[in-house]
Write a structure and sequence with these properties.
Number of helices: 1
CATH architecture: Sandwich
Number of strands: 10
Radius of gyration: 15 Å
Largest sheet: 5 strands, mixed
Low-confidence stretches: none
Length: 127
């Protein structure tokens, strides 16, 4: 899960720990707003996957994405599913849930831990 900053929209980045693809130009990202159930397909160059940095960068400035971005609120949950367009089975190679820091009311008790293998959320004990 990625905790994103809504003020950075229409740019959206999240970590990628999926398998290698032949070329970022062969990737398709389906971004879905879980509240509205609207989805958009994002292709290169609006979606850039950097395998070395383990990062996906989405640029949602295109007019085709304007309505979708306008409906995103701080309480929205987005799902991103990445497909390799050269794979005939249409099997996802990576999935990510994206929430916005404002929706958590406070991120004081949460820390996003990034590793090559997993995400862990640590809640601090308050007494």
């Amino acid at each position: 899960m990625t905790i994103a900053d809504i003020t950075l929209l229409p740019n959206l980045d999240f970590n990628y720990i999926g398998r290698n693809i032949s070329s970022e130009k062969d990737a398709k990202i389906v971004l879905t707003n879980q509240e509205t159930k609207d989805s958009i397909d994002i292709l290169f160059p609006d979606a850039v996957i950097d395998i070395n940095l383990k990062l996906v960068s989405l640029s949602l400035f295109d007019n085709d994405f304007r309505f979708f971005v306008k409906e995103i609120t701080s309480d929205s949950t987005l799902s991103a599913v990445i497909y390799d367009t050269l794979d005939d089975t249409n099997t996802p190679i990576f999935r990510e849930m994206i929430v916005f820091s404002d929706s958590m009311e406070s991120t004081v008790n949460y820390e996003q831990y990034n590793s090559d293998e997993e995400y862990i959320f640590i809640e601090e004990n308050t007494i």
